[in-house]
Design brief:
The complex is a heterodimer of chains A (256) and B (106).
Chain A: H1 2-22, H2 31-34, H3 37-44, H4 51-62, H5 73-76, H6 85-88, H7 102-112, H8 124-135, H9 151-162, H10 172-178, E1 183-184, E2 187-188, E3 199-201, E4 206-208, H11 210-220, H12 231-243, E5 254-255
Chain B: E1 4-7, E2 11-12, E3 17-24, E4 46-53, E5 56-62, E6 72-78, E7 83-91, E8 95-105
Parallel strand pairs in B: 2-8
Antiparallel strand pairs in B: 1-3, 3-6, 4-5, 4-7, 7-8
The chains are: A mainly alpha (256), B mainly beta (106).
Amino acid sequence: MKIAQVAFGLASVFAATFALAQGAADKRRSGYQDMGEALQKMQGDDTANPGMLFVQLGEQLWSKPAGAANKACADCHASGSMKSVAARYPAIPKDADKPIDLEGRINLCRTANQRAEPLAPESRELLSLAAYVAFQSRGQPIAPPSDPRLGPFREQGGEIYRRRQGQLNLSCAICHDDNAGKKLAGVTIPEAHPTGYPIYRLEWQALGSLRRRLRNCLVGIRAEAYAYDAPEYVALEIYLMDRAKGMPLDAPGVRP
Amino acid sequence: MTNVLINAPKTAKPGEIVEIKALILHPMETGFRPGTNGKIIPRNIIEHFVATWNGAEIFRMEMSPAIATNPFVSFFAVATESGTIGLRWTGDEGFLVEERVAIAVG
């Protein structure tokens, strides 16, 4: 049918922009490229991608006043003005002394400028706002800031990435560098490039952050996951974003 | 907060078969799962989905607890006359969402 053609067309355009933005010589593969055609179509169609429900929700929340300051996000940042922001986080913004990720940035804005309670990790509000911001960077190449203060955190992230841990004694690198593209229980092991976060993961039946995904992997190798607010996650995120530098964002992603 | 995404063509030729797709935010809680306190979380699902074309019913669907969170429904209809496609979801806890989209046939 027509719509199916349009959807397929969209998916092809999507795939083409990916190849174009990334350059032909780049051998890295995003999770989007590694998943099946049906899921790619689901992600590519903005009325079939459940992540878009949260983008819509985030857009509504953007103009809703909150906190003692009674200010909405939109009072400072016009709707749709967050282009490329998700592509450069985690970063050290001028009102913070340590690196924070996108969700952390949203909560910092809430506590410092709106004078509101921070949103709970993985809460619908926080994920929706993050999805709305990330959506505006769709197609933008991941561009970590060249802030030298991030260096030690990136190194720490890389060290965690390569460190064996858990009862299975595995590191992130063993699966996602050494064995990426091979199968684990019938599923293709992706290269772990954080291009689509927050993602709508079908297994979760919910939108989730990169932090949730990292916790998921830690549980998978039977390691003890760091506390939700642990700096290790941000360090890992900095490392992963640097590793995926130049790859286009495709948020909100759909993943199996 | 209700949240729906609808994909229906804005125009169609007479007699054309059109696909209508609708995605809605809903937990679809089965009523079989225990919560963190050990007690069963009460069932909260969408029970019925009905689509109308200028008021006449064209599609009806009964949903069950086995349907996943945020149900996505796709169905086909023959475009006969211009007007409004109405979509209506009803379910547990008084859930009721109605959405309308216009379609021009000609």
